[in-house]
Amino acid sequence: PSGSVKYDKVKYVSDIDRTKKIKKAVLSYDNRYAAVSFFDGSIFTWDLEEGKIETQLRDNNQGIITSDIAFGVNTSLIAAAFGKNDEYNIVVWDADDPSNTSSTSFNSNVNDIEWSDDGTTLFIGLENGDLVRWNLAGNNLDNLASFSNSINALSINHDKDVISISTNSILYLTSTNGNRLDSISINGIFDLKWNSIGTKLFVVYDFKDLRLFSISGQAGNYKLNQSQRIVRSLSTNLTNAEWTSNNTVLLQSVNNN
């Protein structure tokens, strides 16, 4: 990236350095690599087969914020979103070849990034409400849709070629070209994600409760249908939610129960 956001590749300092607090960790689809982002803005790529750190990126001038990281589907490509001094960037590099990099800039903070199922395209949700598609091969940026509020989270249903989008008060369903198909009013969505077979969407709202949605209709006319709502009796906020391989949802709360 150009401008104020610059990075050094630096050696891993120590595996007992407890000053670094992990923000997010993701696995590549072949389980070969892990990418780990930290609250100080640095990122590790970790070769799990070799058991060693391959690359560390660190902000030269400090003060950078990493908002999201994601591995491409069935590729070794990693996308990371950074923000600093009103400059917002996404950097893509190859875990197999860290010298192979691409980057692009935005005029708004990047809140979420999702890969297409062929690993060639990124779908990007911005704080200004824009849904953007970045085709890496042609280095083309397309603004697919604009919403009145910040896009907080995205999840792609690869089986149906639709995207679920959360804003501050509405859950949207769009096509991968940005055409709006359905919307449901829900305040305070914290997280959402389609399962691997594209039959169920979970939505965590108010950091505490869970709704499950199914999808009905035909291509170009899909609708969301609420199939289950789980109101948790615990007062602690959720920190993470993930689908398991048997299509149940694993929830983690602040007290780690």
Task: Describe the protein.
- With 257 residues, this protein is mainly β.
- Helix content is 0%, strand content 56%.
- It contains no helices and 23 strands.
- The chain has strands spanning 7-9, 22-27, 33-38, 43-47, 52-59, 65-71, 77-84, 87-94, 101-106, 110-115, 121-126, 130-135, 140-146, 153-157, 162-166, 170-175, 180-185, 189-194, 200-205, 209-216, 223-230, 238-243, 249-253.
- The strands form 6 sheets. It has a 5-stranded antiparallel sheet, with no helix packed on it. Strands 6-7-8-9 form a 4-stranded antiparallel sheet, with no helix packed on it. It has a 4-stranded antiparallel sheet with strand order 10-11-12-13, with no helix packed on it.
- Strand 7 (77-84) and strand 8 (87-94) form a beta hairpin.
- The protein is globular, with a radius of gyration of 18 Å.
- The relative contact order is 0.09.
- Residues 1-16 have low confidence and may be disordered.
Question: Strand portion, in percent?
Answer: over 45%
Strand line-up across the major sheet: 1-5-4-3-2
Order of helices and strands: EEEEEEEEEEEEEEEEEEEEEEE
The biggest beta sheet is recorded as: 5 strands, antiparallel
Query: Uncertain segments of ≥5 residues (pLDDT<50)?
Result: 1-16
Shape assignment:
globular
What is the total tally of β strands? 23
What does the average pLDDT come to? 83
Rg computed from alpha carbons, rounded to a whole number of angstroms: 18 Å
> Tally the helices: what do you get?
0
Structural class: mainly beta
Head-to-tail CA distance between termini:
40 Å
Helix fraction?
under 10%
